[in-house]
Design a protein that fits this description.
Layout: E1 8-13, E2 19-24, E3 29-34, H1 38-41, H2 44-62
Antiparallel strand pairs: 1-2, 2-3
């Protein structure tokens, strides 16, 4: 999902719909939204794990893969020089 106004690149929602996390276009955490009933329907430790997992997944999805041209070139084997005649 892209939202040019807020520069939001990715918006993730927990399966139960209680937590929403927004990740910006550079892969940084941008916003957290909790449903009003989030604290009534889940324990704090479970809620914390859900938030952390959504942030982790969102930032991983927006991280660009390193293009081949940025990878170091493969190393070539050096050829042995012929022995010098003495």
């Amino acid at each position: 999902m892209r939202d040019q106004g807020d520069q939001v690149e990715e918006l993730l929602t927990s399966p139960d719909g209680l937590v929403r996390v927004a990740i910006d276009s550079v892969g940084a955490f941008a916003r957290l939204e909790l449903a009003p009933q989030a604290f009534e329907h889940t324990r704090p430790d479970t809620l914390a794990r859900t938030i952390t997992e959504l942030i982790r997944r969102g930032t991983a999805k927006t991280q660009p893969e390193t293009p081949d041209w940025q990878s170091p070139p493969p190393r070539r084997a050096r050829r042995a020089r012929p022995a010098a005649d003495t």
